[in-house]
Amino acid sequence: MTPDRLSQTLSALADPTRRAILARLARGQATVNELAEPFDISLPAISRHLKVLQTAGLITRDRNA
Q1: 3-class secondary structure, 7
Q2: pLDDT tens per residue across span 23-61
């Protein structure tokens, strides 16, 4: 892991919401709506958190219609 990649990973994990999302995903796949359910934040905010986790290489995302 390069230092830059390590910084991205640590930065992504620094946020408690992103850590909670990762903990939920550790149990299995979930939709954005399912991930947003326990939080009092908007779907676009959840999507931004997911983008940070994806950029850090911690998750992958699929889009299903």
Answers
A1: helix
A2: 999 999 999 999 999 999 999 999 999 999 999 999 998
